[in-house]
Amino acid sequence: MEEKNITEQESLAIIQEMMNRTKEQLFDSSNLFLLWGIAAFICTITQYFLIKANVQDSEAVWIAMPIIAIIHIYVVVKESKKIKIKTFDGNAISALWTAIGFAFCCIPFIAPSAKANIIPFIILLYGIGTYVTGKIIEFKPLIFGGISCFVLVICITFIENESRLLILAFALLVSYIIPGILLKRQFSKQQNITR
Amino acid sequence: MKPFAELDPLLHSQLRLAVMSLLISVKEADFGYIQEATNSTNGNLSVQITKLKDAEYIEVKKTFENNYPKTTCKITKKGMKAFEKYVSDIKQYLTPKN
């Protein structure tokens, strides 16, 4: 492109072409969904089997989460260096997950005083995060994953304690792992087209 | 018949309009990205960006990243209003009303 005068039709074509360019997905967030999804899935299943084997302090498996948070920060810093553009959508998603991250940190403090099992709260937060992200980026598997979490939260009230962990694992599978794999596939396809 | 509004000469130019159209839908964009998206030369893009900056249509931020200079551009409120007016004016040309 160069500095030249244009017709009105050409003007509209330029506006449309440039606006469409920014609609392309520019940040591959699938790695983060997969990182948290797989790590939490492994912890959940491990805790379930430890409880079944009558191992005490089975919650200790969740100590892995701060390590995942460090890997998360590393991935985000590395990926953000590659980003050449900041979108309003990206900003909204980032703010949403930061808020959800804070909420996750609050749960262990609230739960004992509320004498409540924390698993439904965790699934609710998964649901909110994935549903809203799915709506923002218009990605149906995330929307479906979010809705599934809300249904699972209702189902969990009819289930006994350790079996709730299996519901949590299922929630992770439908809201993080499967959408994460599909998102990665879509991102790779887009990269191949734009290359 | 109502006379057509005069199109903003600063925006009615291929490269400047492309830059503004790109920046209107993002929070901010890197110079390299704009250059790639508009398929323009470094020198020409710099000149056009300076013109938009002088008109206060965009903000230009120069920083350093890994010891390399990094330029990011962001549309201003004045730029947004000018762009919206340009789009509404151009519609008159394409769908003239009596």
Could you characterize the architecture of this molecule?
The complex is a heterodimer of chains A (195) and B (98). Chain A is mainly α and 195 residues long. Chain A has one domain. Helix content of chain A is 77%, strand content 1%. Chain A contains seven helices and one strand; from the N terminus they run H-H-H-E-H-H-H-H. Chain A has helices spanning 8-21, 30-52, 64-82, 88-114, 119-137, 140-156, 163-194; one strand at 85-86. Chain A is elongated. The mean pLDDT of chain B is 88. Chain B is built from four helices and three strands, in the order H-E-H-H-E-E-H. Chain A binds chain B through residues 1-6, 8-12, 14-15, 17-19, 21-23, 81, 84-88, 90-91, and chain B through 7, 12-18, 21-22, 24-30, 32-33, 36-40, 44, 47-48, 65-66, 87, 90, 93-94.
Low-confidence parts of chain B lasting 5 or more residues at pLDDT below 50? none
Counting copies of identical and different chains, the oligomeric state is heterodimer
* Count of extended strands of chain B: 3
Largest sheet of chain B: 3 strands, antiparallel
Q: What overall form of chain A do the CA principal axes indicate? A: elongated
Mean pLDDT across every amino acid position of chain A: 87
Helix content of chain B: 40-55%
Strand content of chain B: 15-25%
Work out the radius of gyration of chain A: 21 Å
Q: What is the chain-wise order of helices and strands of chain B?
A: HEHHEEH
Strand fraction of chain A? under 5%
Largest sheet of chain A: none
Taken in chain order, the helices and strands of chain A follow as HHHEHHHH
- What is the CATH architecture assignment of chain B? Orthogonal Bundle
Q: Give the overall silhouette of chain B.
A: elongated
